[in-house]
Structures are given as structure tokens and as C-alpha cells.
Design brief:
It contains five helices and eleven strands, in the order βββββββαββααββαα. The protein has about 240 residues and is an alpha+beta fold. The chain has one domain. The strands form two sheets. A nine-stranded mixed sheet has the order 3-2-1-9-8-4-5-6-7. The C terminus is likely disordered.
Length: about 240
Amino acid sequence: MSRTNKTTNAASTNPASKFIEWSSMDGQWQYYSKDEKKTIGLPMDMPFIALDQLNTTKGYHEKKRSGLWSNEVRGISDTLTVRSKDGIEAVGNWMDVKANPQVGEYVKFTKSVYAMAKINGSYELVNLQLNGCALTAWIDFTKEAGGDKVLFDNTVISVKEATEERKGAVRFNKPKFSIISRELSPEASLQADNMDHELQMHLTAYLGSEKTEEETKVQGLIDKADEILSAGRNEEEVLVEDAPF
């Protein structure tokens, strides 16, 4: 399901400008900047609208000192190919991967949410990688909101607060997603449709191909970001104006 559901033959590269994750330690969004070679924080209340979402896996293999990543799929029964810096580590659906003795304890089920976010006053097509407490919060929010159909309407979402929680000795900040508007400005609506059209062009090709070379290139960048973000990480797992988004 997607905002426009327009699909044509494909763009060859992932159109997301940033791959963003929730930092449960800092209680904010963050991404790794390839140009600046560092992790950059984004406001907790960064507003966004969901364009599409897929499933993937993420993780960090402590023994190999390598990030873990896989292809993106539509359904949890679809085939995932989990990779590390050494190559393919596991192949199968999510249950197969989780049961795999080589990677099961290190890999996390992850929602890959493509969204149009408002960052520093500009609209950007980004990818939100939600796992751990952020995934739990997203699933709960989706249910409370009325399901996926509501998300892919003119629904502007933001994290307005984060609650400090604890699992054993580990403290973490769990995001609370909220709907802050059900109306888009004409500019935002046009931008969202254009971005989703571009996204669907990419996904049509990506999901319909072997995607080995492109997947390795894109996920390699994400892997590098994960290694940096994972260093020292110990976890369980833009102001919004009154005007329309």
C-alpha cells in the first residue's frame, strides 16, 4: 500500500536522502552523514507523513564486529537475505532468520518506513528504520490510529514525547507517535505525491529484481552508519507550527 500507488519501470537508486533511526539513548532521531562522516541528530518532534512501508532486518554482530542488513520485503513470509561484511549469513523468511544460530540473536525485525519529512523547513524523502522500542511504539500507534489506511492519507505524524523505560539495568527512551494534523498544505500534498511516485518507481524495480549490486551498495552505506551508531550503544534492543504541514 502506498500514497499514490503509481508504479512504472524503475529508478535504479534508492531515492531516500537520509536513513534515519530512533536513538533510544538520546531520545531523538539521528542519521549518519556520509559527507560529514558523523552521526547527526534531528529533533524528536520532526513531522512526517508515511508514504510506504516494508519489512527488513537490522543488527550488529558483535563477534564479527559487523553490521547486519537484509533486502526489503512486503510480507513477513517473503525471503530475506541477511548479509554482513563477510557476505551472506542467512536466507529465509523472518522466522527462519530469527531461528538461525549464526545471526538469530543479533538481528532485529525492522520496519522500513518511507516518509516525507520536514527538516529545517524543507521537505525530504527519507527512510525511517524502526526496530526495538521504536518498532513497538509504531505498531501500537498504527493500531490506535486505525490501521495502515489512515497512515497513507493526509496524516501528519510526530513524536511529541518519549517515555523513559527500563529493561533490567538498561534505561531507554521509548517514542510516542502522535497525529498532529490531518490536513496538508497544497505544496505539501504536491510534494508528497511527487515523492511517492519517485519511490514507487524505485520499489517496482527493486522488488522485481535480484537487486544484488544495488542492495549491496545502499545497504553497505547503512551498515557503515550502523557500526558507528552501534559503538557504545546500550539499549533494549523543527518545531511544528499551527499551520498545515
